[in-house]
Amino acid sequence: MNYISNPRALSVIVLAAVVAMLLGGAAQAGAAPSKKLPENYNFFAGIPYELAHPGGSLPGSNDYSCKPTSAHPRPVILVHGTGGSQTTNWGAYVPMLANRGYCVFALTYGAIAGLPWPATAVGGMGSIPASAAQLKRFITRVLTATGAKTVDIVGHSQGTYMPSYYLKKLGGAKFVTKYVSLAPLWRGTGGDLLAPVGRFMGRLTGTDGWLPVCTACSQMTPGSRTNDVIWAGGSPYVKGIDYTNISTRYDELVLPYTSGQVPGRRGESVRNVVVQDSCASDYSDHLAIAGSRRAAYLVLNALDPAHPVPVPCGVVPPFTG
């Protein structure tokens, strides 16, 4: 999403910084302990660790000695959203998945090259084709290390959109079994308002990556060349992959939120979920949906539908989850 030109989004970034400063002292160093990791269902839960360990991996993630089990035979790849990273986006998800026996891996993609930290922890800014190539290399490394044949992807925001380029353009479809999306945007964001602007700027500049600083942001508009790749064949989906789309009606960055609620065609395996449909007190926005216990348990059930967990329904606040 375009955080640069969205005033509300900028306020979210400021809030995140404040929360990070307040929580920064709570970060602990060291690799994942053998005992259970503490679970903190809060979108900002990973920021303190990034502050204490710049460029590091959250405890429980990126352990290349991890071997998938018969209960969880595929590594889970966490793909962050615009402005996120392997730590800052996944403070709720890494411990939850690691505690349940998954091999969990997360990357930071699309950071602006040549800049020092903390810019290295602000991913998803570069072009989507380049980020998809990063994802391809990362998944290849994970498969080689773990011995698995395929992976499951869990993405948030741009992390639901960019991997589809990997699937459709870079040969990734045969390496993915499940594709779980939080705040997806298959049709892009901005709807009918931004579509003509995106097409005009694309013709004027000769590229769909025309937005300064955040190349990916303009590639997530309807009608962009990148969006055309994702919709190659008339659908954003690939047959043989199991998709779950989890959206919120209060998404302020995926506009309209129904951009991510695309029905599957015959032969495609797609489940669409809007969190408010079964819990009116869920006020998740674009950030909170990647931090709440409620959405996280929906993800667990998407990854392992044979062993469902009860999904709670309580008041879910915006921003934090």
From TrEMBL:
Domain of life: Bacteria
Keywords from the named record: Signal
Position of the signal peptide: 1-31
One Gene Ontology term from the biological process aspect of the record: lipid catabolic process
A Gene Ontology molecular function term of the record: lipase activity
Transmembrane segments: none
Protein name, as recorded: Triacylglycerol lipase
UniProt organism field: Gordonia effusa NBRC 100432
